[in-house]
Amino acid sequence: MVDVRKDFKGRSFLAIKDFTKEEFFALIDFAAELKAAKKAGVPHRYCEGKSIALLFEKPSTRTRCAFAVSAVDLGAHPEYLGASEIQLGKKESVEDTAKVLGRMFDGIEFRGFSQKAVEQLAEFSGVPVWNGLTDQWHPTQMLADFLTVKENFGRLEGITFTYCGDGRNNMANSLLVSGAKAGMNIRIAAPESLHPEPWVIELAENIAAQEGGGSVLVTADESEAVADADVIYTDVWVSMGEEDKFAERIELLTPYQVNAELMAKTGKNNTIFLHCLPAFHDIETIYGKDVNAKFGLDCMEVTDEVFRSSASKVFDEAENRLHTIKAVIAATLGEF
Ligand code: CP
Question: Is residue 102 part of a domain?
């Protein structure tokens, strides 16, 4: 039996694969507890007097705000360090930076390109390090997504969860492995050239067989992938740093767009739609207007109709970033 108030103390949170199924579920349940406490106005200042560094090499709304608000709710001080504000990897190695930050802060969040960088921060800082997204994994997003699924269905095991779109990005990697760990029927629908790398599929299959108990499917056939799905998930077709790939991705991924027709192919009337956000569902953004002018599209990975439908739980999911990130900080750093 996992004790969330003891068993995570001092540990880093770098990828879901590093945790057992029971630990993964314990963090989700702890987040639900902290969510209820916040809604009821019950104080939970488990990190009183601690200081945490928030390192962001890439932009963020949800992750940054969730870490900052969590820190304050827990009684800790958050210090934001943006890409242009520190020397990380430019004039000072990640190892040296980690050693300095570890002398000053009690915990470090990192969002950036390289998984190796977040691993080095954890290795050399001597304090818990939390992965706020790298090119390989997005583990805090998984906790929020799976808490949202549990809120809607009351369970995770046995849920059929289908991700449609770019199967090679950090979200597809993370959902494949996390879904396998949770005992879901986890499916990726993507064109063959954008299937997850073989090592990620193999990792998910091994986890499903040895620990999760569910199934793993990676296919180019979107109709097969969404049949009986309880959850349909998508992400942007062009990730941060890939802005030259719009034309190629639109051609490849249009058959995987989440629209009313695709949602109907689940054959269920209680399927929910999730998206980590931000989403390309209209042209109320500079990117949206640019894509509209160049390609004539008024949405990309999800239609505005589905995004705004009652099936869409994307803003519950975004709120859950706060409660789940708070659970990670408290479990690894808190005094209970
Ligand atoms: N989903 C997500 O990570 O959002 P941000 O990029 O706004 O942090």
Answer: yes
Say if 70 falls within a structural domain: yes
Phi-psi region of 213 (alpha: psi -120 to 50; beta: other; left: phi over 0): left
For residue 173, what are the domain limits?
Answer: 160-229+231-265+272-310
The crossing angle, in degrees rounded to 10, of helices 246-253 and 286-295 is 70
Asked whether residue 133 is domain-assigned, the answer is: yes
The residue type at 310 = S
> Under a CB-based contact definition with an 8 Å cutoff, are residues 210 and 222 in contact?
no
Cis preceding linkage at 278, omega within 30? yes
User: What is the C-alpha separation between 229 and 265, in angstroms, rounded?
Assistant: 9
Express each pLDDT in 210-245 by its tens digit: 999 999 999 999 999 999 999 999 999 998 778 889
Pocket test of ligand 1: the residue of 60, 109, 285, 320 to mutate, having most ligand atoms within 8 Å of its CB, is: 60
35 CB within 6 A, ligand 1:
no
321, 322, 324, best to mutate for ligand 1 pocket (most atoms within 8 Å of CB): 321
Active site amino acids: 111, 138, 141, 235, 276, 321
Smallest CA-to-CA distance from 166 within 63, 272, 245 is with 245
Dist. CA 15 → ligand 1 center (Å): 16
162 ligand 1 Cβ < 6 A: no
Task: Please give the model's pTM, rounded to 2 decimal places.
Answer: 0.97
H-state helical runs in the chain: 21-40, 62-73, 94-104, 115-125, 139-153, 170-182, 198-207, 222-226, 246-253, 260-264, 286-295, 304-307, 314-333
Q: Are residues 112 and 193 in the same domain?
A: no
pLDDT (average), residues 290-302: 95
277 CB within 6 A, ligand 1: yes
- 152 in any annotated domain: no
